[in-house]
Amino acid sequence: MTRQRALTSIHIAAVLFGLTGVFGELIQASAAVITLGRAVFAVIALGIFARLRRQPLMGVLTPAQLFVLVIAGALLAAHWVTFFISVKVGGIAIATLGFASFPAFITLFEGLLFRERIRAVEWMLLGLVTAGLVLVTPSFDFADQGTIGLAWGLLSGLTFALLALSNRRSASGMDPMQVACWQNVVVALVMVPFAVGQLPALPAVDWFWLALLGVFCTGLSHYLFVSSLTQLNARSAGLVIALEPVYAIAFAWMLFSQQPTPRMIAGAVLIVAAIVLSGLRKSPTADADAEAVAKSQP
């Protein structure tokens, strides 16, 4: 893995992450079924990629690590379910931009829960995300589907922020690939009661889309992400992943004619700028946050 190959890998991973909303739009099943199918196929894919790297995934875990993985897996399940509901209700662009608010939530939680001082640049980050979300919001009326979709997207961003902070605080020292595999196992177990009854009626084409979502947008993308970190630091990789909303909006426009309005594009620019600013900020916790997001990324 050279630096050039690492940069290529991280850009491919960003494109694959951006395709997640596309599969959420294509698959006609409920968010619970999509989440279950994605997790199952992701575990299979991660197992294959780990074997190619000759990397064990079933290593001995302490009770404390298992507890952390169960909590994180439940948060990942909540993140995926709320994201796919957002896609179904509000569309790909709104869902992705709502989720992209997670750096602002991380900053807020660091200040409120962990009593870390919020710097001026981080207040600027919060301001950019807030302004971007105001522009993205179709209307301030919860009778509007787009507004409801954005609310679900924000909830998706909030749960992802909690997931990233959970990994940062408690999963240090664990391999990101192992963390991803175990968290997906937990996601599948959590979602079985809610989705298993719907599986017999799932058409073959939806199984095909679920397989692509789990293998490429979860397993392969995470494999490329983790592999790139052998040559790139987490902060640099995170800046490339910040392009995910851009790719998602472009895919939605090209494939489903979900053309963004000028206000939405302006809001997207502000939110992406905030993500980049979050990746560039020089603080004692910045690299820890970036590593945590890397472990949470699937």
TrEMBL record:
<dbReference type="Pfam" id="PF00892">
    <property type="entry name" value="EamA"/>
</dbReference>
<feature type="transmembrane region" description="Helical">
    <location>
        <begin position="91"/>
        <end position="113"/>
    </location>
</feature>
<feature type="transmembrane region" description="Helical">
    <location>
        <begin position="179"/>
        <end position="201"/>
    </location>
</feature>
<dbReference type="GO" id="GO:0005886">
    <property type="term" value="C:plasma membrane"/>
</dbReference>
<keyword id="KW-0472">Membrane</keyword>
<feature type="transmembrane region" description="Helical">
    <location>
        <begin position="34"/>
        <end position="52"/>
    </location>
</feature>
<feature type="transmembrane region" description="Helical">
    <location>
        <begin position="120"/>
        <end position="140"/>
    </location>
</feature>
<keyword id="KW-0812">Transmembrane</keyword>
<keyword id="KW-1003">Cell membrane</keyword>
<protein>
    <recommendedName>
        <fullName>EamA domain-containing protein</fullName>
    </recommendedName>
</protein>
<keyword id="KW-1133">Transmembrane helix</keyword>
<dbReference type="InterPro" id="IPR037185">
    <property type="entry name" value="EmrE-like"/>
</dbReference>
<feature type="transmembrane region" description="Helical">
    <location>
        <begin position="262"/>
        <end position="280"/>
    </location>
</feature>
<feature type="transmembrane region" description="Helical">
    <location>
        <begin position="64"/>
        <end position="85"/>
    </location>
</feature>
<feature type="transmembrane region" description="Helical">
    <location>
        <begin position="237"/>
        <end position="256"/>
    </location>
</feature>
<feature type="domain" description="EamA">
    <location>
        <begin position="148"/>
        <end position="278"/>
    </location>
</feature>
<dbReference type="InterPro" id="IPR051258">
    <property type="entry name" value="Diverse_Substrate_Transporter"/>
</dbReference>
<dbReference type="InterPro" id="IPR000620">
    <property type="entry name" value="EamA_dom"/>
</dbReference>
<feature type="transmembrane region" description="Helical">
    <location>
        <begin position="146"/>
        <end position="167"/>
    </location>
</feature>
<feature type="domain" description="EamA">
    <location>
        <begin position="9"/>
        <end position="136"/>
    </location>
</feature>
<feature type="transmembrane region" description="Helical">
    <location>
        <begin position="207"/>
        <end position="225"/>
    </location>
</feature>
